[in-house]
Structure formats: C-alpha cells, structure tokens
Amino acid sequence: MESFMHILNIFAEHDNQQGISFNSNFLEANVINILLLLFGLIYLLRQFLGSVLIARQTKVLLAIEESEERLKQANIRLEESQKQLAQTQIVIKQIKAEAELTAEKVRESILAQGKIDIERLTMTSKASIASTEGQVKQQIQQQIINLAINRVASQLQGQITTTIQSKIVEHSIQQLGGRI
C-alpha cells in the first residue's frame, strides 16, 4: 500500500509541473464512487459473463469432443481403407500370377498345337511324296510295259507266220472254251 501511495505522489508532483494535477482527495475525486460502480458492475456482470463463458466453454468442449470423435472415425476409416488396399494388392498379385500361369499354358498349348500341325504337315507331305512317287513309278512301269509290248509286237509281226497265228487263235479258243 505504501508503494501505491508513493506512485500516486509521483503522479501528483509530475502533473503539478505540467498544469494537470492529480487530486489526492478521494472524496472530491469520486474515486469511491468509481470503485463502488466498478465493484457493482463486476458483481452483477460476473454471473452474466460467467454464464456466457460457461456456455462458450461448453460449446468449445463439445466441438473438441466432436472433432475427437470425427478423428477416431477418420482413423477407423483409414485403417479399413489400408486393410482394403492390402487385400486389393493381394488380389492383384493373385490375378497377375494366374494371368502369367494362363499365358504360360496358352503358350505351351500353342507350341504343342504347332508341333502337332508340323508333324501332320510332315506326314501329309511324306504321304503326298510317296503317292507321287508311286504314280511316277506306275507311269514309268506303264511306259516300260507299253514299250516292251510295242517292241515284242513289232518283233512278233516280223516272226509270226500265218500258221503260228492260227495255232495261237486255236489255243486261245480252247482256253476260253474250257472256262465256259
């Protein structure tokens, strides 16, 4: 209290030098009235301001609780999303593995089918070559036979007489007659 009075005296002396003075008489300065008014306002407004502050505090606490609840829900959704991502990645790996396996099987199937087709074409080619060789051999044999027959016929024409021809005809008739 003594320091307060000392400060008031310093203000009073300072103000006297500049023309503005501090009135140290409390009754004349209405300090008591101002203090009573100030204490009355504090007393009356304390309940009002207290209820306003309590309401504001309640709202802030509710907002914090709602935010914490939303944070918990967001964390739960994040964990679920991470689980779904992990499951999705597992499914993707399985699909890739199955696709690679299927591609390998298809490749092997195509190669096997290609080998079968090559073997079939080879066999067909060999059969075609054999058939063509047979036809060529048959044609060569036919030409050789024709040439031999023509040669024998020309030789026989020069060597066959009418008596030999009549014997051949009779012999042929007898053979035909024995069959009938």
Number of β-strand runs: 0
Rg, Å, rounded: 66 Å
Distance between the termini: 172 Å
Q: Which parts are unreliable, with pLDDT below 50 for 5 consecutive residues or more?
A: none
Computed structural class: mainly alpha
Order of helices and strands: HHHH
Dominant shape: rod-shaped
Q: Helical element count?
A: 4
Approximate strand percentage: under 5%
Notes on the protein architecture:
- The model has no long low-confidence stretch (mean pLDDT about 85).
- The longest helix has about 130 residues, at about 30-160.
- This protein is an all-alpha fold.
- Helices cover about 95% and strands about 0% of the residues.
- It holds the Pfam family ATP-synt_B.
- GO terms for molecular function: proton transmembrane transporter activity.
- Belongs to the ATPase B chain family.
- It comes from Betaphycus gelatinus.
- This is ATP synthase CFO B subunit subunit I.
What does this entry show, briefly?
Helix content is 93%, strand content 0%. It has helices at residues 2-18, 26-29, 31-159, 162-179. The longest helix has 129 residues, at 31-159.
Write the layout of secondary structure elements.
Elements (H helix, E strand, L loop, with lengths): L1 H17 L7 H4 L1 H129 L2 H18 L1
